[in-house]
Amino acid sequence: MHLSCLPFLLILISGIFCQYDYESVPYFTEGDYGYSHSMFEPSTAVCAPECNCPVSYPSAMYCDKLKLKSLPIIPSGIKYLYLRNNMIDGIEENAFDNVTDLEWLILDHNHLENSKIKGKPFSKLKSLKKLHISYNNLTEDVGPLASTLDELQLTNNKITKISPSALEGLVNLTIIHLQNNQLKEDSISGVFKGLDSLLYLDLSHNQLTKPPLGLPANILMLYFDNNHITNIPDHYFQPFKALQFLRLSHNQLTDAGIPGNVLNITSLIELDLSYNQLKSIPTVSENLENYYLQVNQINKFPVSSFCKVVGVLAYSKIKHLRLDGNNLTRADLPQEMYNCLRMAGDISLE
């Protein structure tokens, strides 16, 4: 992706995440496991002795990088709990009995296994909004979860299945990260049904051979990159009326696997089909702005893939088009392309 595309993406993505009220709690993104300045402040009296509860954020407890093998005692009043980069492999059933109003639970980079999570400890967290258990040893979901949950991150585990009831009733769930697991389409088809608030779903780096069924129609961002997808069922995207970002890069898509108008999605702003086995350019909506087709086997450029008709008010809104790594040169581009792609400021062929 060219750097010129990044500001556009960041603006749109920030628009989704800005809907959350983080209450000024210091929060680190995945991969940033250093301490903020608040970690060097005096800790409150009501805090696990091995952890830190900064005076300026007394409801947050930081227990990162302490080589913990089990959860510490969590005092009442803690709402934001960080336990990243430890050696925790299990959770007792009564672990959260004292903090049923916990809102954030961050358990990334531990050794958690489903067999060592006793009972249903997460079901007791009736106010939980964010649950992060990425980079662990989970093989399945950790439900049931509270209906208050708005963000679930289970990336970089070994998850092969999600039970049909695991996400049932999570009407506030907006973001799901499931990338880098071992999921197949049959193991997740239907599990997202009823998630009417879901805007962001990342299933990249799994074992899908086709897109799963039963996804909510209101989804905004959908990522299937780095799977084994060979075909997309005809009319698959027809229910999606708000879909703006779709990634299908690094799959095994051929021309035969993409029915004529299946990607002609009027709401779509960005489509990534790079690193597949396409020989022709799939037809898209005139509303598409960013189209990534690099590293395929494309050898022709039909203007009809972008414009049904060309006129004063009829043209493609494509701004960025990547075709590098294909069998095309500038000489292969038809002259009428420039009337169709009149808004394109970046067409990459090399």
TrEMBL record:
SUPFAM superfamilies: L domain-like. Residues 46-80 form the LRRNT domain. Keywords: Disulfide bond, Extracellular matrix, Glycoprotein, Leucine-rich repeat, Proteoglycan, Repeat, Secreted, Signal, Sulfation. GO terms for molecular function: collagen binding. Residues 1-18 form the signal peptide. GO terms for cellular component: extracellular space; fibrillar collagen trimer. GO terms for biological process: positive regulation of transcription by RNA polymerase II; positive regulation of transforming growth factor beta1 production. Its main location: secreted. It is found in: Secreted, Extracellular space, Extracellular matrix. Binds to laminin. Belongs to the small leucine-rich proteoglycan (SLRP) family. SLRP class II subfamily. This is Lumican. It comes from Sphenodon punctatus. The gene is LUM.
